[in-house]
């Protein structure tokens, strides 16, 4: 059985993460991990982006555009 671990670091710059996450770098070097540089959806704040990760729906389409909105109406991909 293959497993997948999704590491989400809220507010961490790619370059800082790359330089300071030695264990994850080691996994990539052993070909048991992958690193992807992604472009952030906007607005780049927590709640809208968690919604995007969990549903695959961009903030502009989901309506979740700030940290203070209620529950999602979208179906989770998990």
Give the arrangement of secondary structure elements.
Elements: H1 14-20, H2 22-29, H3 46-55, H4 59-62
Description:
The protein is mostly helical and 78 residues long. 37% of the residues lie in helices and 0% in strands. The longest helix is centred in the middle third of the chain and has 10 residues, at 46-55. The model has no long low-confidence stretch (mean pLDDT 89).
Question: What summary fits the major beta sheet?
Answer: none
Count of runs of 4 or more consecutive helical residues: 4
Question: First CA to last CA: what distance?
Answer: 17 Å
Shape: globular
Rg over C-alpha atoms, rounded to the nearest angstrom: 15 Å
Which residues form runs of ≥5 with pLDDT under 50? none
| Mean pLDDT, all residues | 89
Question: Which labels suit this protein?
Answer:
globular; 78 residues; mainly alpha; 4 helices
Task: Please give a quick description of this structure.
The protein is mainly alpha-helical.
């Amino acid at each position: 059985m293959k497993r997948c671990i999704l590491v989400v670091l809220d507010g961490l710059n790619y370059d800082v993460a790359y330089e300071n996450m030695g264990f994850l770098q080691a996994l990539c070097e052993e070909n048991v991990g992958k690193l992807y540089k992604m472009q952030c959806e906007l607005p780049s704040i927590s709640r809208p982006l968690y919604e995007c990760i969990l549903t695959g729906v961009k903030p502009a389409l989901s309506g979740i555009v700030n940290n203070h909105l209620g529950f999602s109406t979208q179906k989770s991909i998990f």
